[in-house]
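Input sequence (102 aa), recorded before submission:
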Amino acid sequence: MATFIYILQLKSPYEQEACWTDETRATLGRHWNYLVDLHAKDIMKVVGRTEVPIENPENRGIAIFTAEDEAAAKLIMENDPCIKEGVMEGKLFPFNFALGAR
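Predicted structure, token format:
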């Protein structure tokens, strides 16, 4: 198993919370449930976001997880409802813990 990180960023127009619709909020709920499910399966290790307002251009989410290889990691990222449904874009990277729990 290898460790990966995907970094999430809201796509336009979703970086403005005033533009969120009920459908957007439903997608965000599915996104959260997806991450919770992967965490319960011990795939998702760390999930969080920058502590800045939604409208801040530096707003990002992160997901650190394990997968067999990069192809499997890409599938995990691409199946995130926020990416799949076009609310966020994600960038995938291999990740190496330097300090902290694994």
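Checked by second reader. The chain has a mean pLDDT of 96.
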